[in-house]
Amino acid sequence: KAGRLADELGYNLYIVGGFVRDLLLERINLDLDLVVEGEGIEFAKTLAHKLNGDLDIYRDFGTAVVDLDNVKLDIATTRIEYYPYTASLPEVEPGSIQQDLFRRDFTINALAIQLNPTAFGQLVDYFNGKKDLEAGVIHLLHNFSLYDDPTRIFRAFRFASRYGYQFYEETERLIKQAIDLDTIEKLSPNRLFGKLKHGLQDENPTSFIRLLVKYDILVYFSDSLVWNQVKEKLVKQVDKIIGWAMKKEQNIEFTPWILYLMTLLEHFTKEEVEKFSKKFNLNSQLKSRIKTSLEIEQIITKLKQAERNSEVYYTLEGLKIEELLFILVKDFSLTEKISLFLEELKEVEIKVSGKDIIDLGYQPGPYFKQILKEVKRAKLDGKIDSTP
Ligand code: ATP
Fold it and tell me: Which residue has a Cα nearest atom 9 of ligand 1?
């Protein structure tokens, strides 16, 4: 329908970017980015009207989103981009589909498929993107690309690790050159951390981290971020623990990328964590996870000594799921105790309350808390009947 509408308006309409790349790789990608050789916003308005969809217009960016019941379409006018200085926002003006594809990052992301009925399904491939996809190479479209937008270095790492691709020789040289010239310094801390997070959230964080190491990028996050055999082993362990947690019958909800971050920072001192959290403006949840990872050795020692259920419980009580999993990253031999806590002990509740004790004629006081804790301890250790 969109293609027919484009014909009626005299526009060429294409689907571009990640969707096309992943279609050729036979992967699912639900990001539908459409570009129009014509008036993108006008086209979006008419389309939303015809299909009864919701419309959001972003005039500053010259883009619009049409929200249909089960799909969302990002619509833009084909355009040329100019970057006035490194890492700036681009200035844009309308251009042809070829120019629109040329402003993109890599050849594999510069593919389009036409949607007008007369040419429906035709692949538009000016820069040999299909060939690079088949060969498994990440190939920058132009030489100044990484100066215009240094975040593309991280995009290159993300795609290389996700698909197991290599860098095209010239691209690798450009990446090294851009890094040597400190282009990454031009990114604000927020953007920089965002790129790290994005990479750690992608499909192969371990390989992404290895690329950060290989190209000496960790230092932009902190001088204290060192890499060694221990870290290499821990990161592999994170992969294993995530697999373990996902396979558990009981549905464990956790945020995997945080485990990689905790691992990267686990050798930090308190001061280094403070500095890192401040620099990247980390929220309190993230900061508290990282802080716990500093204390993990003590927790592990205590947990190893814990014999009774109540000792396990009171060692782990209050820890967040990523913190519990991080214990296993450091010491996989503790799986039984962590499973016991997650599957049984965490759920144990006692039915006695402070009010029950008052009803027995005792004066309220701080010792109530102690009593209730003792009751819970007894229940955890099976000393009182837990059947209702
Ligand atoms: P992912 O699968 O990670 O979402 P994607 O390629 O779909 O990858 P998007 O960020 O949704 O990534 O971008 C859509 C398209 O926009 C890309 O395929 C690429 O053509 C272009 N693009 C995105 N970011 C940049 C960038 N920083 N520089 C140049 N082109 C970009």
Answer: 18
Among the listed residues 132, 88, 113, 150, the one whose alpha carbon sits nearest the alpha carbon of residue 34: 113
In this prediction, residue 348 has a pLDDT band, given cuts at 50, 70 and 90, of: low
d(CA 274, CA 223): 14
Reported ipTM exceeds the 0.85 cut? yes
Task: Name the region of 30 (left: φ>0; alpha: ψ -120 to 50; beta: rest).
Answer: alpha
Maximum distance among all Cα pairs of the chain, rounded to whole angstroms: 88
pLDDT at 388 over 50: no
DSSP β-bridge partners for residue 93: 80
Neighbours of 230 (CB within 10 A): 12
Out of 19, 21, 31, 162, give the residue to mutate to test ligand 1, the one with the largest number of ligand atoms within 8 Å of its CB.
31
Nearest alpha-carbon partner for 222 in 268, 256, 258, 253: 268
Q: Which of 38-47, 346-355, 370-379 is modeled with the greatest confidence? A: 38-47
Q: Is the dihedral of CA 145, 147, 148, 151 positive or negative?
A: positive
User: Interior CA angle at 341 toward 336 and 346, to 5°?
Assistant: 165
Note the pLDDT tens digit of each residue in 68-80. 888 899 999 999 9
d(CA 150, CA 129): 21
Q: Are 213 and 157 in contact (CB under 8 A)?
A: no
For ligand 1, mutation pick of 104, 108, 192 (most atoms within 8 Å of CB): 104
**The tokens of 215 are what?**
């190209």
Tell me the three state secondary structure of residue 77: strand
CA–CA–CA angle 115, 116, 120 (5° rounding): 60
First-to-final CA distance of the chain: 62
- Based on DSSP, count helices (H) and strands (E) in the chain, helices before strands: 20, 11
30 neighbors 60 (Cβ within 8 angstroms):
no
Bridge partners (DSSP) listed for residue 113: 15, 123
